[in-house]
Amino acid sequence: MSPAILWRATRAYSLPASVVPVLLGTALAVRGYGDIGRGQFNLTTFLLVLLGSVLAHFGANVINDYFDYVKGVDTRPEHGSGVITGGLMTAGQALAYALVLFAGAAVCGLFLLRINPGVVVPLVILGLACAIFYSAFLKKYALGDLLIVVAFGFGLTLGAYAVQAIEVTPRQWLLVAFISIPICLLVDAILHANNLRDASDDRAARVRTLATTLSPESGKRLQLFLLFGPLAFVLLGVLSGFLPVWSLGTLLALPLLLRAAKTLSVEGTAQTHLVFGLLYTISFVLAPTFLW
User: Fold this and answer.
1) What is the residue range of 104's domain?
2) Chain-centre distance for alpha carbon 9
3) Assigned domain for 292 exists
4) 34-53: b or e for each residue (b if 16 or more CB lie within 10 Å)?
5) Residue pLDDT, tens place only, 147-199
6) Residue 175 in domain
7) Among candidate residues 115, 191, 107, 111, the one with its CA nearest the CA of residue 151
8) Interatomic CA distance for residues 197 and 199, integer angstroms
9) Of the candidates 121, 259, 283, 288, which lies 20 to 30 Å from 265 by C-alpha distance?
10) How many domains, in total, are found in the chain?
């Protein structure tokens, strides 16, 4: 099987969903912010966290294609990544590929165990459970948005932070989780854009998502909230003195936000997530400056 087919099966356009939270968590752990003490950057640890997150994400995408195909949800070449429905890969090959990707993520987790097993073990279990049970069971109950926010928004950010921080207190966990809210909203925007596109097919297959539960207009309004909510969070955060002035750099992502709001495309939303997320992360790397 060609590398191009394997790459396509991962739906790599959604890569920002796993990369950005890891970068944000790393920046908060290493640079420190507010009550979060400053840690020390270790390249090997960072690369293991990043690689493990990406492999788990890719595995989740592939196994989602597998379950959607065997359950009759994906039937046309444009559904999912298109590798199964287009005849480029059998369902059995997709399942095997997903397991290989999950195994690679687990190996990264094993290397990270020596750093903080109390954090790594629960997060690995949570990540695998979200990836598998979402596609196999929970997708039909409109719980996909919640799981994506938990796994890719809070989970990866908190995981990357906790593995690389010197010490972790409950207050620090809450602070990191609160800071990650814009990333949570944007990662859900990627999923919701996908669900808006597939709403008619999902209804026919009796798959429940927020896009199928809400009216078309309400679904679009939700997408606008998910896209522009992060910007409102940043503006309020800077004005209140909670976020540094540098976070206003996320305004540079406004053209992408406007385009994603107009087209409602999955790829455009993922690009917006990446650019906004990088600008947001950079604002915590710079020396903090506040309005008040």
Assistant:
1) 3-285
2) 17
3) no
4) eebeebeeeeebbebbbbbb
5) 888 888 888 998 899 888 877 788 888 899 999 999 999 999 998 998 898 88
6) yes
7) 191
8) 6
9) 283
10) 1
